[in-house]
Amino acid sequence: MPLQNRVLPSQEIVASAGRGLLMGNRGSLHDTDRRLGTTRWRSKAWLCCLLDYKGVSRDPMPPGRWTALFFFDEAVALAAGHRPCAYCRRTDFVRYGEAWARGHDLTERPKAAAMDAVLHRQRVEPHSRRQRTTRAILGELPDGAMIAAADGPALVLNAKARPWSWDGYSGEAGRPSYEEVTVLTPPANLVVLKAGYVPLLHSSAVGNKGEPN
Description:
Layout (H helix, E strand, L loop, with lengths): L3 E4 L5 E3 L6 E4 L21 E4 L18 E3 L2 H6 L3 E2 L5 H14 L8 H12 L10 E4 L8 E4 L2 E6 L2 E6 L2 E2 L10 E4 L3 H8 L8 H4 L7
Helix pairs in contact: 2-4
């Protein structure tokens, strides 16, 4: 039975056999039986990390420490409200912060805590604690954004939607570029994408050489 540690673009954490390119965490979310309770974060720092860092073998659910979460790729992680880890993905974290600064017309790269505070306000509804979404015109969204559709989440590439599943991205959904859609990716991450941050995408999206693990 798979552990409940796979993250969907909708922020939900599910038990699935699906595999992904990245991992991350939001703090310790599980009990002594390695089951999740109702809490979905312990920190505003929602991280997106490497699957393997310096060959260290890690327990995905060590008692009282952290709950390892897994993402299909970085577009999914950004949609769920995560950002690159400043430790194991230092280069990507700096690229992300620099794009944040450009997109927000800042004179210097912001601190991680400042970005986390903004992201947290944008990714979670304060009362329901569910994912906060926005509306936008499909053709105005940057590559790497994710939207919600009747048949499930979809990745935006070249102003077109590519339906997502754990099996990969399928063909274009045929949505008109002028259609208004529900956007899963928080506004701050949209700004980062528009400012030039290039996320790690699964090979089924654009022929990326990375493969799921």
